[in-house]
Amino acid sequence: MDVISTAKAHGGVQGVYRHRSRTTDCDMTFAVFVPEHQPGEKLAVLTYLSGLTCTHQNVMDKGEFRRAAAKHRLIIVTPDTSPRGADVPDEPDNWQFGSGAGFYVDATEAPYNANYRMYSYITDELPALLAVNFPVATTRQGIFGHSMGGHGAMTIALKNPDIYRSCSAFAPIVHPARADWSRPAFEKYLGADAKAWRDYDTCLLIEDGKRFPGFLVDQGTDDQFLENGLRPELLKAACETARIPLTLNMREGYDHSYNFISTFMDDHLAWHAKRLKP
Ligand SMILES: N[C@@H](CCC(=O)N[C@@H](CSC=O)C(=O)NCC(=O)O)C(=O)O
Question: Does the keyword Cytoplasm apply (predicted)?
Answer without folding.
Answer: no
